[in-house]
Structures are given as structure tokens and as C-alpha cells.
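Sequence, please.
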């Protein structure tokens, strides 16, 4: 027997078990593209594990807990003031969501980039308990 989660895929609508995947992903995209740090943090658990798609370690840069994530975001939005993520597609269940995106931005003093990637979100009671980002490397 295959276990099934109440899920929402790009283009589907409906609420399953009190979790509205479409509304969750819409809000996620809104706060990230609005650089709304308070809105981003409100979607996370207090002990969130945040792993960026870049950094010196194999998992990228890691921040644990809302204060560390706030510091990371303030730095990132300061370094890349026009950064944005345009959704390609998503999958959202009450315990897991994946959002694929095309990110663009121009770091201060740098050149504009454009790269595809995704966020894998572990959810607990409708909040992000872990956010792990991955993106394509450009050679």
C-alpha cells in the first residue's frame, strides 16, 4: 500500500486536512520576493534549519533559529538588493513542500546572474521547520 499525503500541485486548488498548499506557496513567494523579513520569519518555526544554496560547506551556508536566519537574510538582501525568485512549479503537502524557481539578481559591484533551483521545505504545523535550497551550477 502506498502512503498518500494530502497534496497540492501547481495548478490544483483545494484544502486538504486544513492545509492549503496553494495559499502557503503563494505567501512563501510573496514574502521572499518582497524581501519581507518579518513575513519570512513568521512562516518558520523558532528552531528552523535554513540551508542556503551557496556557501563554503557542502550543504551551503546554514543558519539555525530565527535570529540567525534574520541575520543571514539582512546580509543577503543588502548584498543583492534586486534578488528575486520566479516560481516554475511547486508541490505542497502538509508535511513537505518543494518550490522550483528561477532566481535572478545583481550583487553589489557584481554581474547579474540567472539560475534555476529549488527549495525543499519540511513543514511542522503549517510552518517551515527546515528550508534546504539547491541550485544549478554554471560552468
Amino acid at each position: 500500500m502506498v502512503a498518500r499525503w494530502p497534496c497540492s500541485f501547481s495548478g490544483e486548488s483545494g484544502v486538504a486536512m486544513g492545509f492549503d498548499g496553494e495559499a502557503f506557496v503563494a505567501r512563501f513567494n510573496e514574502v521572499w520576493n518582497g524581501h519581507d523579513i518579518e513575513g519570512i520569519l513568521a512562516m518558520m518555526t523558532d528552531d528552523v534549519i535554513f540551508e542556503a544554496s551557496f556557501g563554503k560547506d557542502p550543504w551551503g551556508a546554514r543558519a539555525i533559529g530565527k535570529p540567525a536566519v534574520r541575520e543571514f537574510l539582512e546580509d543577503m538582501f543588502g548584498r543583492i538588493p534586486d534578488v528575486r525568485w520566479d516560481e516554475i512549479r511547486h508541490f505542497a503537502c502538509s508535511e513537505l513542500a518543494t518550490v522550483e524557481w528561477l532566481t535572478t539578481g545583481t550583487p553589489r559591484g557584481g554581474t547579474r546572474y540567472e539560475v534555476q533551483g529549488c527549495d525543499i521545505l519540511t513543514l511542522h504545523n503549517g510552518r517551515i521547520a527546515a528550508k534546504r535550497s539547491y541550485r544549478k551550477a554554471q560552468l
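Helices lie at 21-33, 37-42, 66-79.
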